[in-house]
Design brief:
about 600 residues; alpha+beta; Heat Shock Protein 90; Ribosomal Protein S5, domain 2; eight-stranded mixed beta sheet; five-stranded mixed beta sheet; 20 strands; about 20% strand; binds adenosine-5'-diphosphate; binds magnesium ion
Length: about 600
């Protein structure tokens, strides 16, 4: 028998390799643009024709190549970026495998023009299907131009697999976006079929995002910045109220390399959890910088996955960074509560005669950070007193507080059913509050609104350690099994921050001597059992998540339920407090709290 194994010629081997590296025109775009970045270019122009099928051209003003290198660069495993195995653990360049150009040349007609600054003339090489067809010296500016023509000209099967020009163009724009986002100091253009689609000037990341996604992003972004020894996180998130119904605008980078990472995505989603509606997605543009040795560098050129040595640490830092960014900014909505001169929604005779609807003067500390460790000295103080306990209603205190409106309240309390009353606040079905604002009519879910108000209040108390406690006249005993007792012990410091006063009597029994002021009149034992139940379900090592869970449970338990009658003062107070919240639109469970009926649009005024 004859031996049967043959070594494939390079041209065939390259073509096989190309199948993996260059799947579509956008793959070639990515490789050529990354090479231009690695070459230190400050201006990179991308030109495509027929969605890259007939031409992809990348022009850069980078370091250029010598005549020898220009010839060598098309060889497989030809790279200037690493030379030893150790180098694999310190990669700072986008490429390092030395296969992109070999792959592209195997399946296209490539023209390379390149010149180093120090050289008098440049080199031009034409390589078709891995065969050098022409080489000459040419005069040119320093830098490199790669023109890739007729991609897949010798692999018709692959050419036929390409999607519609629109789809391929979308892929190209996406790759262009990923490359340009993290290099805002570099200028880029993208021209397709003679039309300039993008002209990105050198600037900062925010300007780059605006250049790519539109100037409206100027006001939509919140900066995220977190430096720690091992991980540095920088970038922007899109404010909760601009979250979109479709994915997209979710850009993670590791050392400026675009990645997809479901677990880290969860860190952001989780940080936004109680702020954006369930059917919307958070937007972000975030670079995670780590020591190259702390990630698995064996990254396949077409893959966007990356493995971190300590992904849990990255998760925790990312989560905290996003929480901080959200907390530092006031995300309250832009409903205009100023006077409503030309909007006469008739709530009855008294409403007209009484005060105009004015945004209550609630002091909002825009710099307030609910996640700051030290208690804030600019403590947040709503104008009104705390919301009265619905369990204690009717609350006589309101008469004293709002003397001049006592009559209205009285009327409301005795007559208010589901018919309109002479009031600016109207309760429907004992579950919804109707009121007017400048732009229309608000319909507010009272239960969800109160959950939001309490949630933010408890979160602040947890951060500032200033929950107000109410002493129990008769201390109650809470008996637990060993397991629950140890869980409760874990939670004790936080429970105390919320206003619980507890003492461990023996390994499984706790005496409840005080409860949060907001929990007056409710069964403390039941409340703590509920907290433990939820803690068991959502147990986490992240301190922040623990606080969120606690605040959520307590808010849900202590909030006004549907089918609870409210006085006008109570409604007004609740609405005031809701719109003093960081986030007024959605409850911590992601449900919409109110709808705004825009009267002018509705009736086409
Ligand atoms: P890699 O980027 O993994 O090194 P490539 O096949 O993409 O492999 O490129 C091979 C080599 O060609 C690079 O290492 C670099 O030295 C050179 N090269 C490619 N593109 C450029 C460019 N635009 N400017 C200067 N040198 C380049
Ligand atoms: Mg490369």
């Amino acid at each position: 028998m004859l031996d049967v194994i043959k070594l494939l010629p390079d041209s065939v081997a390259n073509q096989i390799a190309a199948g993996e590296v260059i799947q579509r025109p956008a793959s070639a775009v990515k490789e050529l643009m990354e090479n231009a970045l690695d070459a230190g270019a400050t201006q990179i122009d991308l030109v495509v024709k027929d969605a890259g099928k007939s031409l992809i051209m990348v022009v850069d003003n980078g370091c250029g190549m010598s005549e020898t290198d220009a010839r060598l660069c098309f060889e497989r495993h030809a790279t200037s970026k690493i030379s030893r195995a150790e180098d694999l653990f310190a990669i700072r360049t986008m490429g390092f495998r030395g296969e992109a150009l070999a792959s592209i040349a195997a399946i296209a007609q490539v023209e390379l023009k390149t010149r180093r600054k120090e050289d008098e003339v440049g080199t031009k090489i034409i390589n078709e299907g891995s065969v050098v067809k022409e080489q000459s010296l040419i005069p040119m500016l320093a830098g490199t131009t790669f023109s890739v023509k007729n991609l897949f000209f010798n692999v018709p099967a692959r050419r036929n697999f390409l999607k519609s020009p629109q789809a391929e163009m979308r892929h190209i724009v996406e790759e262009f976006t990923r490359v340009t986002l993290m290099n805002p100091e570099i200028s880029f253009t993208l021209t397709a079929d003679g039309k300039e689609l993008y002209h990105l000037y050198s600037g900062n990341l925010k300007q780059r995002i605006m250049g790519l996604f539109g100037n409206s992003y100027e006001s939509k972004l919140l900066p995220v910045n977190q430096d720690s020894e091992k991980v540095r996180i920088h970038g922007y998130i899109v404010k909760a109220e601009h979250a979109r119904k479709t994915r997209g605008e979710q850009y993670f980078f590791v050392n400026k390399r675009f990645i997809k990472h479901a677990y880290l995505h969860h860190a952001i989603e989780n940080a936004f959890m109680e702020m954006i509606p369930k059917d919307s997605f958070p937007g972000y543009f975030i670079n995670i910088e780590v020591d190259p040795a702390d990630i698995d560098i064996n990254i396949h050129p077409t893959k966007t996955e990356v493995n971190f040595l300590d992904v849990k640490l990255v998760y925790a830092i990312l989560h905290a960074a996003v929480r901080k960014a959200i907390g530092q900014h006031n995300l309250s909505p832009t409903i205009d509560f100023t006077e409503t001169p030309n909007l006469n929604i008739d709530f009855g005779e008294v409403a007209k005669a009484s005060r105009p609807l004015v945004m209550p003067d609630v002091p909002i500390d825009a710099n307030y950070n609910p996640f700051r460790q030290t208690p804030s000295n600019q403590e947040f103080k709503p104008k009104w007193n705390e919301f009265p306990q619905h369990r204690d209603r009717p609350s006589g205190d309101w008469r004293q507080l709002y003397g001049e409106r006592t009559d209205i309240n009285k009327g409301a309390e005795t007559e208010m059913e589901e018919t309109p009353t002479n009031s600016q606040y109207l309760q429907v079905n004992q579950s919804y509050i109707v009121t007017t604002v400048k732009s229309g009519i608000l319909l507010i879910d009272q239960h969800l609104a109160h959950i939001r108000v309490l949630f933010e209040k408890f979160l602040k108390q947890l951060e500032n350690h200033n929950g107000i406690s109410q002493q129990e006249l008769f201390p109650q005993a809470l008996s637990l099994n060993m397991n629950d007792a140890s869980l409760l012990k874990e939670l004790l410091p936080e429970l105390e921050n919320l206003g619980f006063v507890m003492e461990q009597a023996n390994p499984t029994t706790f005496m409840i001597n005080g409860t949060p002021a907001d929990a007056t009149g409710c069964d403390a034992v039941q409340l703590l059992e509920k907290i433990l139940d939820n803690y068991k379900i959502n147990r986490t090592d992240l301190q922040l998540d623990r606080k969120l869970n606690l605040a959520k449970t307590l808010a849900a338990q202590l909030s006004i339920k549907a089918q609870t009658r409210l006085t006008e003062a109570e409604m007004q107070n609740l609405v005031d407090q809701l719109f003093a919240c960081n986030v007024a639109e959605v409850a911590p469970n992601g449900k919409k709290i109110y709808v705004l009926l825009n009267v002018e649009e509705f009736f086409e005024k």
